[in-house]
Design goal:
Aspartate Aminotransferase, domain 1; alpha/beta; seven-stranded mixed β-sheet; Aspartate Aminotransferase, domain 2
């Protein structure tokens, strides 16, 4: 690694002293306009006024999921609530399903499926690699009794995106439900539920849609709605038949986080007004900028062979001294000294990689501050990065 003299980067921050720069894959920063909306007086959830907010959310979620045939539902909970809803509403105990796992969130879906008594087979791929569609095709050819295929769109534990359209083409001719975890990808990566043959898509509020945690979404196509009539797994709070009935009012079957929904309605209107294509292009540009900074400024290598546009995962600097410094140590220094939060690795990757998100309201300036802080943090441990051409 090359040492550059007089290359210390100045980090300027106009935020309040207590504010953190969030560069994590959820929660992500929330625009002040949305925070102001959520600070308005609380509405009662059984009123026509709140019903109008719900209708707006349902309609605009269909736009964000890019579907004209699926029905959108909103749940109180994190993205994991949507993933569990996708299991309990469409399957019966003992049925065979395939979980395609490329990281921590594929493993989570696998654990949930097994906990609910499904016969869950797992196609596991090396972390940093995407699902091989040919392996999915081969599995289906040898397992004619499979009832569902579960795939994560963007695996944030490794910063990898899966070939969702290609897998969808394989499944279109089969009587198999296609279920996609879009928790981190929705509004950040190109996502087209109808065109890609996705039966069930799950997501959440705290990532690309720029809202606080607490809301989960699930978009259910006609084949899955039909399957729901015969599915026998136990369910109550996540029983979508309750939610379908309540939408006729419109309201929710149980008390929702009304203030969060008011903020979400505004966020979805903003996405629709600006268009998804604009959002996708913005995050693609941010991703390219981040990957370039990681490689050229920090001298680091990417983990993923198929990097996502919502998050970049990378190893620390390759300098021998840098290898002695766990990423947990560097990230603590960023939080304590710079009030910048960047994500560590998960599972066996903890302490080995860093993960910078570029989704939601995260800006180029935020990314640059994060990279500059990493340069200074590593410098404090005697590790020099390639920072000559990088300016804040």
């Amino acid at each position: 690694m090359k040492t550059v003299k007089n290359s210390k980067l100045k980090i300027q921050d106009s935020r309040s002293p207590s504010a953190y720069t969030l560069l994590t894959p959820g929660p992500t920063p929330v625009p002040q306009e949305f925070l102001n909306k959520m600070a308005e007086p609380v509405l009662h959830h059984r009123t026509p006024e709140f019903g109008r907010i719900l209708n707006s959310v349902f309609e605009n979620l269909r736009y964000v999921f890019q579907t004209e045939t699926a029905e959108a539902f909103v749940l109180s909970g994190s993205g994991t609530a949507a993933l569990e809803t996708a299991i309990v509403n469409f399957f019966s105990a003992g049925e065979r399903v395939l979980i395609c796992s490329i990281g921590a969130f594929g493993e989570r879906w696998s654990a949930m499926a097994k906990a609910h008594g499904l016969n869950a087979d797992v196609l596991k791929f090396e972390q940093g690699q995407a699902v091989d569609p040919q392996k999915v095709k081969e599995y289906l050819g040898s397992h004619p009794d499979v009832r569902g295929v579960f795939v994560t769109h963007t695996e944030t534990s490794t910063g990898t995106t899966n070939p969702i359209p290609t897998i969808g083409e394989i499944l279109k001719t089969k009587d198999v439900l296609y279920l996609v975890d879009a928790v981190s990808s929705l509004a950040g990566e190109e996502f087209r539920q109808d065109a890609w043959g996705i039966d069930v898509a799950a997501s959440a509020s705290q990532k690309g849609l720029m809202c606080p945690p607490g809301l989960a979404f699930i978009s259910v196509g006609p084949r899955a709605l039909e399957r729901m009539k015969t599915a026998k797994l136990p369910r109550f709070y996540f029983d979508l038949s309750f939610y379908r009935e309540s939408k006729k009012v419109p309201e929710t079957p149980f008390t929702p986080p009304v203030s969060l929904l008011a903020g979400l309605a505004l966020a979805l209107e903003s996405v629709k007004r600006e268009t998804l294509e604009t959002y996708w292009a913005r995050y693609k540009k941010l991703a390219q900028h981040t990957r370039s900074a990681v490689k050229e400024t920090l001298g680091c290598s990417l983990l993923s062979a198929r990097p996502a546009n919502v998050l970049t995962a990378f190893y620390g600097p390759s300098e021998s001294e840098a290898k002695k410094i766990p990423t947990t140590t560097v990230l603590k220094k960023l939080r304590d000294d710079y009030k910048i939060t960047i994500a560590d690795g998960q599972g066996h990757l903890k302490g080995k990689i860093l993960r910078i998100a570029h989704m939601g309201a995260i800006t180029k300036e935020d990314i640059d501050r994060g990279i500059a802080a990493l340069v200074e943090a590593y410098a404090s441990y005697g590790v020099s990065c390639r920072s000559l051409s990088f300016k804040i």
